[in-house]
């Protein structure tokens, strides 16, 4: 017995909606990255006093004195680009392309800051941190996607024959 066309279209429609939602999320993420990267002044400037108080408190409560704003900012740059790798893999890009894309986006961001934003500081350390973030997002997503169980197919069914619910 043949599956009615309406049932066969549902998985494809669901996949198309999922892909559209992923693209929407990726574009929203990239818009946020662009806003932070192209902000004329350092985005953390308004929080400078709060950050100083936070580090003072952390150092009084056992965090080593060598861990300060520089390390915190570097880790924030790593975390900032983890979603880049996640979205790239989920959208179907190969792992190497996801990491290379993160590297290229970071180079473009730092070049824009260097060329157009006098109050911002471009740095190779930021490129390295951002690329590491894209790499970590890529690796984590590849690991999760590979571990996802696939639904077993009933005996005698080919991969092109949709299973009934």
From TrEMBL:
Q: Quote the Pfam families the UniProt record gives.
A: VanZ
Kinase among the record's keywords?
Answer: no
What range does the record give for the signal peptide?
A: none
* Location of the VanZ-like domain: 27-141
Membrane-spanning intervals of the chain: 20-41, 74-93, 100-118, 124-145
Keywords attached to this Swiss-Prot or TrEMBL record, sorted alphabetically, are: Membrane, Transmembrane, Transmembrane helix
InterPro entries for this protein: VanZ-like
- Name of protein: VanZ-like domain-containing protein
Its source organism is Sinomonas flava
């Amino acid at each position: 017995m043949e599956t009615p066309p309406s049932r066969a279209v549902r998985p494809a429609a669901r996949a198309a909606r999922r892909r559209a939602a992923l693209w929407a999320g990726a574009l929203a993420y990239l818009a946020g990255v662009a806003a932070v990267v192209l902000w004329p002044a350092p985005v953390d400037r308004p929080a400078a006093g709060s950050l100083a108080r936070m580090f003072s408190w952390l150092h009084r409560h056992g965090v080593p004195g060598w861990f300060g704003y520089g390390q915190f900012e570097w880790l924030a740059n790593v975390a900032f680009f983890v979603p880049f790798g996640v979205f790239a893999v989920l959208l179907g890009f190969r792992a190497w392309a996801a990491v290379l894309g993160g590297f290229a986006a970071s180079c473009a961001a730092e070049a824009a800051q260097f060329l157009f934003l006098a109050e911002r500081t471009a740095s190779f350390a930021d490129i390295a941190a951002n690329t590491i973030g894209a790499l970590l997002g890529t690796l984590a997503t590849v690991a999760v996607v590979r571990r996802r169980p696939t639904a077993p197919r009933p005996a005698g069914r080919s991969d092109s024959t949709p299973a009934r619910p």
